[in-house]
Amino acid sequence: MGSSYPRHVMPAKNNRTDTPHKHSLGAKSFQLYGLMMLCSLFVCAFVQKNLSSIFNLPLDSAALLEQGTLVLLGVGILVASSQLFDAWFPSFRLHKEQTHRLIGPLNLFSAVLLSLVAAAGEELLFRGALQPFLGLGLSSVLIGFLHFSPQGTFTAWSVYGLMTAMLLGVIFEHTKSLVPGFTVHTIVNLNFLMKHYFAMKRLNNGRNVAGKDIQ
Question: How many CA atoms within 13 Å lie on the side-chain side of 69?
Fold first, then answer.
């Protein structure tokens, strides 16, 4: 991300850039992911009956170290891949810009909370509720389809979504716990949303300075 948004991504001049608007994607995402969590918890508890096991953490230091290593590798792979996709594929950059614009204003607390809520909702649904039933491959392909472009085409964004789903799915299969994948997912989300937050903050500060100059 640059120091400011491209012109077509900038929010309207009269809008605050630090307070979520009720019609923005950021505000609606809290509702969507909250519903996803409730439905997924129900499925895990009463259908899959794996609710107690998917939040387990190992007690021995060797297993904890292994899971910590998986988290670091997962974050490194996904953040580096995002940077490479951003550099190589214009469609990927465009989708990120559109997502930033749709998210709208976020304050720091909302950015952190949305990172947590989005990771929890998606991990509970796709890994906790669906992967034991559909398997790693089919559940990952489903996520890839959900990352289609608005025009309904399979793009670099879809590939990144599929790759992310495969990686998090493998971590879940290996550890039998949602905790490592949730941690990876949260950090990756936070990396994206903190860039959004600071870019919006710089934009807001620039407008404040411009307003004082005019006065």
Answer: 7
Region of residue 153 (phi > 0: left; psi between -120 and 50: alpha; otherwise: beta): beta
Q: Cα separation of 17 and 201, whole Å?
A: 7
Tell me how far apart the 2 most distant CA atoms of the chain are, in Å.
Answer: 64
Number of neighbours of residue 61 by Cβ within 10 angstroms: 8
In one-letter notation, the amino acid at residue 64 is L
CA distances from 136 to 40, 70, 165, 210 (A): 17, 17, 9, 52
List, for the chain, all residue ranges whose pLDDT scores fall below the cut of 50: 1-15, 17
Within 10 angstroms of residue 125's Cβ, the number of other Cβ atoms is 21
Task: Calculate Rg over the CA atoms of the chain.
Answer: 19
C-alpha dist (Å) from residue 19 to 15, 46, 117, 214: 9, 38, 18, 24
Q: Give how far the C-alpha of residue 126 lies from the chain's centroid of Cα atoms, to the nearest Å.
A: 13
Q: pLDDT tens digit string along 126-172?
A: 999 999 999 999 999 999 888 877 676 789 999 999 999 999 999 99
What confidence score (pLDDT) does residue 20 get? 55
Rounded-to-integer distance, Cα 65 and Cα 121, Å: 26
* Whether the Cβ atoms of residue 118 and residue 33 lie closer than 8 Å to each other: yes
Locus of tokens 């609710």: 51
CA gap 52, 148 in Å, rounded: 33
User: Distance (Å, rounded) from C-alpha 214 to C-alpha 212?
Assistant: 5
